[in-house]
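Figure 6 in text form: structure in, sequence out.
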């Protein structure tokens, strides 16, 4: 889905399923067919990254939080998953109450 926000700012929304391999190449090709060139230094990719905010100090909640932190630390980076340059990514942090 493409939305023209203003001047040279366009929002492209691509959705992938849970077990689906994330590949941004078809998205870039689709945008090129509609006159949007997404290659080069003038393209910035935005991605949301969860930040865990601890709410309670119970044992079970602390155990789950620790497990999530370990899983997040061992996950591949979004730049590696999508194949985009690290300097072209802007991360938006989303607070997740835990």
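Output sequence:
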């Amino acid at each position: 889905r493409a939305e023209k926000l203003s001047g040279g700012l366009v929002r492209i929304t691509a959705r992938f399923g849970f077990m689906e391999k994330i590949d941004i190449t078809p998205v870039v090709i689709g945008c090129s067919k509609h006159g949007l060139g997404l290659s080069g230094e003038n393209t910035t990719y935005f991605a949301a990254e969860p930040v865990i905010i601890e709410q309670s100090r119970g044992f079970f909640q602390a155990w789950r939080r620790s497990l999530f932190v370990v899983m997040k630390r061992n996950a591949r980076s979004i730049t590696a998953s999508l194949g985009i340059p690290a300097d072209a990514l802007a991360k938006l942090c989303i607070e997740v109450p835990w």
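Caption detail: The longest strand covers residues 45-53.
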